[in-house]
Amino acid sequence: MIKIFKHLQGKDWLLIMCSLVFIIAQVWLDLKLPDYMYEITMLVQTEESKMSEVLVQGGYMLLCAVGSMIAAMITGFFAAKVAAGFSVRLRGMVFEKTMSFSMEEINGFSTSSLITRSTNDITQIQLLIATGLQVLVKAPILAVWAVFKIMGKSWEWTAATGFAVLFLIVMLSIIIIVALPKFKVIQTLTDNLNRVTREHLTGIRVVHAYNAGAYQEEKFEQANNDLTNTNLFTSRVMAILMPTMGLIMSGLGLVIYWIGAFLINQAAIPDRLSLFSEMVVFSSYAVQVIMAFMMLSFVFIMLPRASVSAKRINEVLNTKAKIIDGNLTDGKEGLSGEIEFRNVSFKYPDAKDYILRNISFSAHKGETVAIIGSTGSGKTSLVNLIPRFYDAMEGEIFINGVNVKNYSQEALHDKLGYVSQKAVLFRGTVSSNVAYGHNIDIVSEETSIKKAIEIAQATEFVEKMENQYEGEIAQGGTNISGGQKQRLSIARAIFKQPEIYLFDDSFSALDYKTDRILRSLLKKEIKDATTIIVAQRIGTIKDADRIVVLDDGEVVGMGTHQELMINCEVYQEIAYSQLSKEELEIG
């Protein structure tokens, strides 16, 4: 828990120190009230005292109460400012850290867990700071100061107060021991509920198509009930706290007056007035001691859950990214769009078998290199190694004569135009999605956006949209079709004008006519760029300069379409399963 606070800045500590000053002032004012109460009690029972003297003491009490309130308000303001500022900074740090994660780290935490850690967990820390700064600091000061105030009074009253405090501490300890393990479970169950909800919402079309609503509801109910039952258990345990606190406070007051009655009865008549006043004052101080522990109990309610949240946040912040940034921004002089795989092997984390083995091939400036193979042959895995979504376990990958591991990730990604297998669009407009990652200058960029959309064969449907190029795109592109999403994803890569294009099965949602026209325009418009195409359809890749055939993670053929139709059995099987001999132009 303490480790999380190392991220507090100097200004935060300054505000905390200012809060400490006002907390001490507040405690001093609170503990002055019984002193004036003692004077009023004495004055009221003394015959020659004047009303004005009572009013003066009452005025002092009022000033102390108002001063304490003002000090509490200032402390609350500082605490809220520290908590809000810290949570904003912490949330930014977690987000920035997750941005540096490779797919390995993302999958290790899971997306739903990272969302919970960035929101719910940080909220728990914020609540602890906002409340704890006022209570956790004030309570010990109040308790110790009040104890010093009552020292030297009747040992019977002191013993009664000590017994009440001891009973309170034992009760708090038992509650924490019972509740703490459940708080750890609550955060995990929150992750699970987040995962089930997210899974349901993202897969809503499949859920409806298979009439699986009842099945999904059952999964949600199970996750929801698990979280609810655990929360109920901790709430019930904590519910014991407040009634017990009230019982202790009322019981202590009763015991003090009961003991006081005996002491006053046994005391000499001249001492009874003083003893009665001391009893009233002692009762007030004893209540302050119990109040201090009561305030601490509120922190103890939040502390276990916040402690778990802090641990989970630290896990994210302390995770070392597996993809280590290089420091180069450019390749060898004179080279552009050059890619080389040299004896590359790769397996996913914790997997037993390699999914790619000893892959070697090259692509030169202006060439189109296609990758084809059966499902599970490693095509997407191979392409994902180029932008370093994962790093190769063995071998090397070169771009422009430099190992990709030696580039800074920003410089490496600047050279690439990547279109993923599953089209990804963001909430915004058509233009903001096509120009994603760039600051759009309306005058200079509008033509480039339209040109990219035209090449990607998306002009027709874009100009039919309301507001056309400024037409709204929903989160995930749910308001347009799969083929339209894919074309806008392709337009995004074209707009970037990179040295190397990576198309990971990006034409699969297009009809054959659109596919053919798009590839023809691409060949014309980006002829100076290198293109890597992963595809399932022979028609998409048969005009490529070089085709790499994968089977079970190994290269089993490499060459042009005509060459592979002669000497590669795997390629022949794929080709004949899709097209006739006449279509393959070899009959």
Which secondary structure elements does this structure contain, and how are they paired or packed?
Layout: H1 10-44, H2 51-99, H3 103-109, H4 111-118, H5 120-150, H6 155-202, H7 204-209, H8 213-239, H9 241-266, H10 269-317, E1 339-346, E2 356-363, E3 368-373, H11 379-384, E4 394-399, E5 402-403, H12 409-414, E6 416-419, E7 428-429, H13 430-434, H14 442-455, H15 459-464, E8 472-473, H16 482-496, E9 500-504, H17 512-525, E10 530-534, H18 538-541, E11 546-551, E12 554-559, H19 561-567, H20 569-578
Parallel strand pairs: 3-10, 3-11, 6-9, 9-10
Antiparallel strand pairs: 1-2, 1-4, 4-5, 7-8, 11-12
Report on this model:
Strands 6-9-10-3-11-12 form a six-stranded mixed β-sheet. Strands 2-1-4-5 form a four-stranded antiparallel β-sheet, with no helix packed on it. It has a two-stranded antiparallel sheet with strand order 7-8. Helix 1 (10-44) runs antiparallel to helix 10 (269-317), helix 6 runs antiparallel to helix 8 (213-239) and helix 14 crosses helix 16. The radius of gyration is 36 Å and the shape is elongated. Strand 4 (394-399) and strand 5 (402-403) form a beta hairpin. The chain has helices at residues 10-44, 51-99, 103-109, 111-118, 120-150, 155-202, 204-209, 213-239, 241-266, 269-317, 379-384, 409-414, 430-434, 442-455, 459-464, 482-496, 512-525, 538-541, 561-567, 569-578; strands spanning 339-346, 356-363, 368-373, 394-399, 402-403, 416-419, 428-429, 472-473, 500-504, 530-534, 546-551, 554-559. The chain is an alpha/beta fold and 587 residues long. The model has no long low-confidence stretch (mean pLDDT 79). The longest helix has 49 residues, at 51-99. The chain is 64% helix and 10% strand. It folds into two domains: 2-317, ABC transporter transmembrane region fold (Up-down Bundle); 324-415 and 502-510 and 536-587, 3-Layer(aba) Sandwich (Rossmann fold), CATH 3.40.50.300. The relative contact order is 0.08.
